[in-house]
Structure formats: C-alpha cells, structure tokens
Design a protein that fits this description.
Layout lengths: L2 H9 L3 E3 L2 H8 L6 H12 L4 E5 H13 L3 H12 L4 E4 L3 H14 L3 H12 L12
Parallel strand pairs: 1-2, 2-3
Helix pairs in contact: 1-3, 2-4, 4-5, 6-7
C-alpha cells in the first residue's frame, strides 16, 4: 500500500487500532516506514480519527530500552504513548484477557497479538494496523 492509499483509507475511518510496531518504527524514525507512521499519527493527533491500542503496546515498546538499561528512553516513550492526543489505551483487564483467549484459540495468534485484536473487537474498531516488517 502506498502513502496515498493509506491516507485515503485513514480518511474513511473513525477509529484505528495501532499495533506496537507502528509506534516502534515511528519512534525509531525507520526510513522505510516513517512516512507511513507519520501519516497515521498525524491523523490521530489532528482528531481525524481516534487511535486505539492496549497496554501490551506499552510493555512491548519499553522492552528494548529496558534491555539496554536505558531508563530515560523508557520514561520518554511511556510519556509519549500515555500522553498522545486522541489515543485510547485499553488496559489488560479480565474481560480483555478472556476475549484475547477466545481470539487466540480461534486464530492461533501469539498472546500479544491476540490482546491487540481483542481490544479492537471490544470497542468495535473496524481497522487495525498490521505489524510492519523491515
């Protein structure tokens, strides 16, 4: 999908589930994806659509700086995520865990991906970003 197609797709949505990889590539300014991630986050920030993710994203996003012992980056990324305008972060609670188990049983997705999908289902989000591969 090209940038124009992504922007057109975003324009027709009111809400989008954002996978951890989108945040990671955006924060790392990955040269292959930053143009796309910027389009997603600009649309969310400008309230053209609502962004949705789960607390699993926070766990996955902070793992890399935690492995490096980089507490400063952990704080910065957590603040970025938790204060991003128009972004709903769904906590991993019992109902979400139960829905994630159902999703995982039906799809064989790994637990973090099943939680993201279950979060999307729980609030009836029509679209979810797919994990990007470098």
């Amino acid at each position: 999908m090209g940038l124009k197609e992504l922007q057109d797709e975003l324009a027709r949505l009111h809400r989008v589930c954002i996978d951890t990889a989108v945040f990671a590539y955006h924060l790392a300014e990955h040269p292959r994806y930053v143009e796309y991630t910027s389009a997603i986050f600009a649309a969310v920030e400008q309230k053209k659509l609502e962004g949705v993710t789960t607390t699993i994203t926070l766990t996955e996003l902070l793992t890399y700086p935690a492995q490096k012992g980089d507490a400063e980056t952990m704080r910065e990324w957590e603040l970025y995520l938790t204060n991003f305008p128009n972004l709903l972060i769904i906590p991993l609670d019992q109902p979400l865990a139960r829905e994630a188990a159902r999703v995982r049983a039906e799809t064989r997705l790994k637990t973090p991906d099943a939680v993201q999908v279950a979060g999307r289902i729980g609030i009836r989000t029509p679209a979810c970003t797919e994990p990007m591969r470098s």
